[in-house]
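Could you please review the protein record set out just below?
***
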Amino acid sequence: MALDLEEKLRNEIKDGQVEVTLIDKNNYHLFVSSLYEVASATGIKKDPFAVRLRKSICIPYADIFENKFINCIQAEVSEVNLEEKFVVTKGDAKHKFDYLVLALGSQSSDFGIPGVKEYAYKFKTLEDALMVNEIMESLMNDAAKGKRSLPIDILIGGAGFTGIEVASELACCAKSIARRCGLKGRCSSMVLFEAGPKILPMASEKERKLILKRLTKHGVMVMENSTIEEMGDSWIKLKNGQKVKGDIVIWTAGIKPNDLLSSIKGLPLTEREKIIVEDTLVVKGFNNVFAVGDIAEFIDPANKRPVPAMAFVAYKEGEVVANNIINTIKDKKLKIYKPAYDMLVAPVGGKYSVAHIKGVTIAGFWGWVIRELVDLRYMLMILPVMKAFSVFWEEMTLFTKND
């Protein structure tokens, strides 16, 4: 969005009429789509700070905004005043605005289930993924030294895209480490818990069967209609009373909007604490405040349901908002957001993905190729060509070792 604004308002920015500022607590853009790859990466020479793994999915803003007229402020937002039009960051720095875009993202939600917060490994941040990676390596190394037996039992709460990606790649990770350590036999046991009647309700029955078949091949058991009632450090208790034990308990089941939203006076929120937006993605009741991504609730007029929290959906929303800010400045009619998300790409371990694009389903190696091309396309959108290919190549060389 910042890149779109900079490109279309460059002359005004050069003349000092317009200023585009991005505020983020990090100095990099986290490529969330590859978090599961970090968690399952193996065969990499490690250092105490996991520098190579971090660099593989942390794209510095300095690279993204190279030769761009964009102010990038590394700071955490602590207050937003919509009435007086300013944002406060920690340290009490005040930043005034004429137009504001709220894109604060989401955070893990435990749905109030006892034990999730205390015992489960979350899967939302880079540190979460690195922690899972470290635990996997530690358990497999203990097995190689005879300190524990195999298989490693992994329990994953949530069988959405993230849960499926994590389960399948961790299964590949365990096999890879076992080969390296000379371990034989079944090395991991994986259980995915889904509260609903079926996994990935947005997928077709054909696609769901392909994904389930691939998960079964990796030794992943999927338990549908299995609502989690409680968690411990090595077990999950279901609503039906069943208790399942494991060595690792991972939580990928839920997200909620950033907590900061509830502190913003005058911000209209739904019962789920998401921002209510108009069909132009302007926040209801305002003409200079917009919201995109996980924190915005946009009801798709086609099916009367909220649009899903997916990366490419947020990207498209950002494009619409950039155009509408420009249209507002130039006193033109705002563009109506028309969501389009008839696309699905689900990596299911190794060089295998199930891809659904424009009504066509492609599974297997070519599905994996599509997934990689989608990633490369995104890199080319936000980075100079050579840097985009460099990041893409680094990912390829790091994350195909399990395959």
About this structure: The domain at 2-25+75-106+256-340 is CATH 3.50.50.60 (FAD/NAD(P)-binding domain). Residues 132 and 138 are 10 Å apart (CA to CA).
